[in-house]
């Protein structure tokens, strides 16, 4: 029964990204940022533990979790190239890529 919590967290993040991509006021966008953080910090540890519990053997578990964390950290590289100066001030391509 982990998947409802993962999808619930990701739903919070998606709503936050949608709020930040809208023409809302700064305060509302700040609230959207809180939703993004809540969703990410809710879903990420559950997904990592889920992989660890479903992998047999210590070595496979260690390699699997390491690859999963590495894949998540590659998102930082993608994010640094998704927000271009010419897309300012709303940065729709960057926000769209982060919400997927």
From TrEMBL:
It comes from the Eukaryota. One of its GO terms (cellular component) is membrane. It is found in: Membrane. SUPFAM superfamilies: MFS general substrate transporter. The keyword Metal-binding does not apply. The chain crosses the membrane at residues 34-52. It is a multi-pass membrane protein. GO terms for molecular function: transmembrane transporter activity. InterPro entries: MFS_trans_sf (IPR036259). Keywords: Membrane, Transmembrane, Transmembrane helix, Transport. Its main location: membrane. This is High-affinity nicotinic acid transporter.
């Amino acid at each position: 029964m982990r998947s409802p919590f993962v999808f619930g967290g990701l739903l919070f993040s998606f709503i936050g990204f949608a709020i930040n991509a809208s023409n809302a006021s700064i305060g509302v966008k700040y609230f959207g940022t809180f939703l993004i953080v809540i969703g990410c910090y809710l879903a990420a540890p559950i997904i990592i533990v889920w992989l660890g519990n479903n992998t047999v053997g210590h070595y496979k578990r260690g390699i699997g979790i390491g690859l999963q964390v590495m894949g998540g950290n590659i998102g930082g590289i993608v994010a640094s190239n998704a927000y271009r100066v010419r897309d300012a001030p709303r940065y729709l391509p960057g926000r769209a890529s982060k919400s997927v």
